[in-house]
Amino acid sequence: MKKSITCIGVLMSFILSICADHALAQDAPIMALDPTLMAGWSGNLAYSNKWGGKSSSANKSSFPYKSSTALRQSVVAGFTKRLQSQSPKGAQAVVSAFGPGKADYGTLYAQMLKTSALHDNDAADALADLILVGYQIVNNVSDEKVTPTMERAARAQVASILTKNNKLNSTTTRARAAEEIKLQTVVMALGLQETLRNNTVGAYRKTIANAYQGQYHINLSQLELTDKGFKKK
Fold first, then answer.
1. pLDDT (tens digit per residue) in 125-171
2. Distance between CA atoms of 30 and 18, rounded to whole angstroms?
3. What range defines the domain where residue 108 resides?
4. What is the DSSP-derived secondary structure letter of residue 224?
5. Number of domains comprising the chain
6. Residue 65: what are its φ and ψ, rounded to 5°?
7. Alpha-carbon distance values, 139 to 113, 134, 161 (Å)
8. Residues 32 and 92: beta-carbon distance below 8 Å
């Protein structure tokens, strides 16, 4: 991902300072994505056991959309509404950080992409980023170990999966799904920063690993990122 989770320390510190009881990392479930929007994705991503690096023309597949403040606020509202039943403290933490009048998660996400080969406002880039961030957290992989070539290869693999998802033909669905993924990615990055400060990062890595295994059927600990993308170890 090489974006760096650590290069946005000032913004991260600000967000964490307004998240009472550190609920953003400790109480919020890692995956609270809209199941309707994600329908069919987890099934396809289950084939991640076959990650093999055949990118061919997939890296040319584009899934662009337009973001807006109104869309991002709608995404935060929907995300926290689903999260409320699972983790009231986690939902409140997200609202406190990114609700109306608060910080824009889009700004944080843009900062994370500054040194990345991935791009904003594209669904394939967003989903590739979510997987890359999870992979780095679970396997304790530093940004320096992830090259732009690796990022582009991972993105190509994701794009090849998304081309089979007809739901993404709708720009509205594509935009909302990608923005939810971006919010989730920022929440994970914030959680990592918090647990590094609190010396609880080991437990956090396990939480992330279990979340990806449960929702996407991806065992991140069994994947290796190469110049051709992800492959099984």
1. 998 999 999 999 999 999 999 999 999 999 998 888 888 778 888 89
2. 19
3. 5-232
4. E
5. 1
6. -160, 170
7. 20, 8, 23
8. no
